[in-house]
């Protein structure tokens, strides 16, 4: 591997806009193989191999002894990555850090420990460039009071460069998970010092224009006037008129040219030729490409107390719903919702998207033009809960009454839920999102004595041990009596406690899934129970077994560059629906890219295709839903999350690269899945 002479830490001069020939050879003592990975330096680069995805498995490149890497003059750190496997899709992430872990300072001179990363998903034999945008403190440390979510680094003092598989989910040992060549590690571009924030002072304010965009940047889709909004709208309407749904689809988005299976009038699942599919109401194979949060406007930001941030006037209530204002201008009317959802329905067909994903408005479902999923609860607030844990008290009698009748009760309250029970366009229902299964027993042990789950646990313990002394011996505790155990809030650490806790934890989880299933099937036995949207695939044995037992489809939210290597035995081999995934960048004026940052818009589109291709060849996966339809606000939504992750931006302008990529997927996904081979082209 060669490093460009642009690396300031080598005392060579930065060459603006070019890479000098020759470069700098890395010495072997700078290459550190991590956790069972194998590293070999060759004339063509560095060979990196690993059969495990565990957190630290991979390669660390350290600077020369006593020095730091200096990337302060460049725009990107880039490296070419070639997947040497002949049959396995590969994912890899590149990370850099600055600062020490004991640093507490927030000045850009001495920043605390911070890390940024980028990633890539590669088909067998594929070679692409992985680019990491460099968030220089000199560019992005905002003046006092200015919002800054970009997490700037002291890029003149980079600790190391690491290559690994972030957030492991694969089985602990799989041959050839990483088998790649890294080459041409380099700095690219020039830091745009003319656009630096540091030193701007009051000139930085306002930094948000009247359309909700970052004022101090430019990009192709940026809106500069109301006329731009209407012009872009007319351009897109003409494009949509010329782009019907893929000709290979039936009216549901199923495979019209595929095999004819039993038509039941409802969506169901079936394994066909060794691969799970949904089957649409007319008996055609269906693979679900979806988008979450299909809503006219979401995530308004607040301007109260931050009036100087905004170019426009902040309303008295402080609410700044930029997308709502932009859509009013775009459609030329205050009540634009009907027109917006008409356009949305046409967009989905033109973009090759056949499913309305989670958290979408009933407005588009009621049109009856696309299949949809619904969520009956997102951790229901009025259901009995465990204290300080995102999980329910499943042994509270009120929980059984509420969850066991959730669909019936929701249907009484909501027109769309009522319609969905007999609507052939309804695929099925999620219940909850990203529950804290790993903290259930913490919630039980810290609960008060009258918590039904705690009472149930103690009842089981009394049946097993009879005497408190016998429990104390097993748990290595010193409770005076059962009342002291009930009144206590400590969590023992002994092996005896953990064994009993695991058994009760399994009992809690099994009851949860049983009652969720009952809540759907008692009112609509023909509808699919789509699970609880797990956070990732590393779920406990208890979660996997109970989900497989009661869910028709297991849903998993997972933010990675590839899901091709998910263990086919996960969740008992049941059908799996990806509930959330996305990719984002820093090239559209946003302060935060995403949970899966990539280099630019084209790489975002390519990453979308590779991710879906990996899911398409996996025998258990029946769909993948993108989170979310629109970029989040520049200054963050209610919880601060402010990612560039949309199919459209704050002004409702589509990203053309993403639209092209999703259309290619929609047109070709059925033949790609049946072919079962990881080719770069969808065709």
Automatic annotation (TrEMBL):
Q: Where is the Glycoside hydrolase family 42 N-terminal domain?
A: 415-561
State the GO CC annotations: beta-galactosidase complex
| Domain of life of the native organism | Bacteria
Q: Which SUPFAM superfamilies match?
A: (Trans)glycosidases
Q: Name one GO biological process term.
A: carbohydrate metabolic process
| Keywords from the UniProt entry | Glycosidase, Hydrolase
Q: Which Pfam families match?
A: Glyco_hydro_42 (PF02449)
Q: Which InterPro entries match?
A: GH, Glyco_hydro_42_N
- What Gene Ontology terms describe what this protein does at the molecular function level? beta-galactosidase activity
Name of the molecule in the record? Beta-agarase
Name the species this protein comes from: Victivallis lenta
